[in-house]
């Protein structure tokens, strides 16, 4: 029959399981009291690192409805009851175990599901809740700016195009060049002046008219013979 002390210890551990979002089971064999204190300080206020007895922990886990493999409750056991971000707690345990090899992470429980040691390590490699929220806030904050840029980019391109076309079009103040008329050269010699006067008066030279020939080849008139 359990003693009141043991019953109280089981009730306390069971309550911690019920209130925790996650629990990481470790073996602390070889760690000094000073090192355990440093570990508790490194885990922060949202994680409670408690040394427990294996038999009492089995009863407490059963009372809280948490399934824990019996192989995890062997040897000197301490459990990190996480009330905050499980990623932060897993990172703290992993980093401390790197500098203090005596701390061995055996496994754990997350949202009522059992975790192996490898799964706890993978959780430690994730980004914390605060980092994810910061990235999400930054992405949401950048959405209006990106949307405005998408809408303003075509407008600015159209404005530059309109300005370029306006610069190429002639304005009202730009002098319009008149076509240069080619005038006929004014005749200066005497014959050209006469020719122009004939054209105006309608007199044309008859170049086809026959002119009397002065050639000596034509026959001359024979004198008439005297009458008898």
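Q: What amino acid sequence fits the structure above?
A:
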């Amino acid at each position: 029959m359990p003693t009141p002390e043991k019953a109280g210890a089981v009730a306390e551990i069971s309550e911690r399981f019920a209130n925790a979002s996650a629990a990481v089971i470790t073996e602390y064999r070889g760690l000094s009291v000073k090192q355990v204190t440093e570990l508790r300080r490194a885990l922060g206020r949202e994680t409670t690192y408690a040394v427990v007895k294996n038999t009492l922990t089995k009863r407490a886990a059963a009372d809280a409805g948490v399934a824990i493999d019996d192989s995890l409750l062997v040897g000197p056991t301490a459990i990190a009851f996480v009330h905050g971000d499980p990623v932060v707690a897993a990172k703290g345990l992993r980093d401390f175990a790197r500098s203090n090899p005596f701390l061995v992470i055996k496994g754990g429980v997350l949202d009522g599901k059992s975790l192996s040691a490898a799964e706890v390590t993978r959780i430690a490699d994730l980004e914390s809740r605060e980092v994810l929220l910061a990235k999400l806030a930054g992405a949401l904050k950048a959405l209006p700016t990106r949307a405005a840029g998408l809408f303003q980019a075509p407008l600015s391109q159209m404005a530059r195009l309109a300005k370029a076309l306006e610069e190429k079009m002639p304005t009202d103040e730009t002098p319009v060049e008149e076509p240069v008329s080619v005038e006929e050269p004014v005749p200066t010699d005497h014959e050209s002046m006469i020719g122009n006067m004939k054209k105006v008066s309608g007199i044309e030279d008859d170049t086809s008219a026959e002119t009397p020939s002065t050639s000596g080849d034509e026959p001359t008139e024979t004198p008439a013979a005297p009458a008898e």
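Q: And what stands out in the fold?
A: The radius of gyration is 58 Å.
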